[in-house]
Amino acid sequence: MSHASPTALILSHVAFEDLGTLEVPLRERGFSLEFVNASMAHFPLPQAATCELLVVLGGPIGVYDQQAYPFLTAEIALIRQRLAAGRPILGICLGAQLMAAALGARVFPGKNGKEIGWAPIQAAPDAARAPWFAPLLSPGLSLFHWHGDTFDLPPGALHLATSELYANQAFAFEDIALGLQFHAEVTAADLESWYVGHACELSHAGISVESLRSAAQEHSLALKGAATQFWRLWLDHIL
Fold this sequence. Notes:
The chain is built from 7 helices and 12 strands.
C-alpha cells in the first residue's frame, strides 16, 4: 500500500521571490509542492490546514498595508489558524512579519532604514536551544537581506539571530514555526530577477545593482552550502 507524498503549500507574493535553495531539500524528502499567489488566492485555503508544511515567502508590501491589500488580513488569519493547530510553518521576510503579526507582535517600519545587501547575522540569546540553526551562524558567512520593516519578538518565541541593523532576524515558536527576516534561500542567479523586479526601490535607495551583483558573486556560494545544510537540519527537526 503506497503512502501519499507529503505536501508543502507555498504562498508567494511576487513570482521571483521563490523557494530558491529550499526546493531541492523538499523534493529530496518526497514533497509535492503547491504554489499559490497570495494576492489572487481565494481564502480561506482548506489545504493550508492539512498540508505537512506551509511556507510563506517574501514580498515588497507591509503587514500594515491591509487597507490597500485586503488579502493580507486573510493571510494572517490563515497563519494564526496554522499556528493554533501546531502544524509546521516557515515564514521568510514578509512571511516572518506576517507570522509575527499572527502571534500578536507589532510590525513597523524600521528606524535604521532599509537593510538591503549581504551581511552576517549573530547568535541571539536562544540560538543555543536550536542546534539546527547553527549553519547560518558560521563564522564569515554573509546572508542576503532585503527589508525596510521590522517587528517585535512575538511573546513566547525563541530569539535566534540578530544583525547590526535589526535585532529580530530569526525566531522560532513552539518547535513548529520559524520566521526568518533575512533570505537564506537566494542564489546569485536568482537575484538577477530581484534586481529587475525591485529596480525602483533600488534606485530610490541609491543602491547600485553592480554592487549587489558583485557581493552575490562573493558570498552566494558559501550561503548555498550553509543554507542547504540548515534546511535539511530544520526539516529533520520539524517533520
